[in-house]
Design a protein that fits this description.
alpha/beta, 4 strands
Length: 208
């Protein structure tokens, strides 16, 4: 598994680059993946969004299409067979469309073997945490409302451990009424991880 995200909340200990990477504290993305499929995979490496290698795809291509294709290249170079990421839209519909376009470009490539668990967090990752904490229709909430609601719940904007704790306590089923973007991401995670774990079980040698 290769992870990509914008900050420490997404990546946890994987936010730091070697040799500064210490500990094993997960971020929200890893915690969500563990909630969907707890065994049969591990994180090999990760990359923060600002460190993604830039590709030359033409000026007319949105930056986030570049970024998704580039981070997929990073994942392949590290020998990973699944890429997982989330990208805040911050209310920008164009960014949301670009994320979908980048993912589609990978999935539609017949030669692509990398599994992709990715999508736009609408309007941001904190809104997903609010949904998991019990908030409803968080995709339509503005950043200010999300921040106020999390503060009222005692969750600070940069408290990664508190956000991971919300994920670990939450029931990940039935997210459609709380956050459609999160529900879509979780559905993709469930399908991709199930398929990859089954494929690995079929290819691993049977102990004698």
């Amino acid at each position: 598994m290769f992870l990509a995200g914008e900050g420490r909340n997404e990546l946890g200990c994987w936010y730091d680059e070697p040799p500064h990477r210490v500990g094993s504290d997960p971020g929200v993305i890893e915690a969500l993946l563990r909630g969907v499929q707890s065994e049969g995979w591990h994180v090999s490496d990760a990359l923060r969004w600002t460190r993604i290698r830039k590709l030359r795809l033409g000026r007319s291509v949105h930056a986030d299409v570049h970024n998704i294709l580039a981070v997929a290249l990073h994942a392949r170079e590290r020998g990973c067979d699944v890429l997982a990421f989330a990208r805040d839209t911050d209310g920008e519909e164009e960014r949301e469309r670009a994320v979908a376009k980048g993912i589609a470009a990978m999935i539609d490539d017949p030669g692509e073997s990398l599994g992709v668990v990715g999508g736009a967090a609408v309007p941001n990752l904190e809104a997903w945490i609010l949904a998991l904490h019990g908030g409803r229709s968080t995709d339509r909430a503005g950043r200010a409302r999300v921040t106020r609601a999390l503060k009222a719940a005692g969750i600070a904007p940069k408290d990664t451990a508190a956000m991971v704790a919300v994920v670990e306590r939450a029931n990940l089923e039935g997210m459609e009424r709380r956050s459609k973007s999160l529900a879509t991401w979780l559905g993709t995670a469930k399908e991709v991880l199930r398929r990859r774990v089954e494929e690995r079980a079929l290819t691993e040698p049977v102990p004698r």
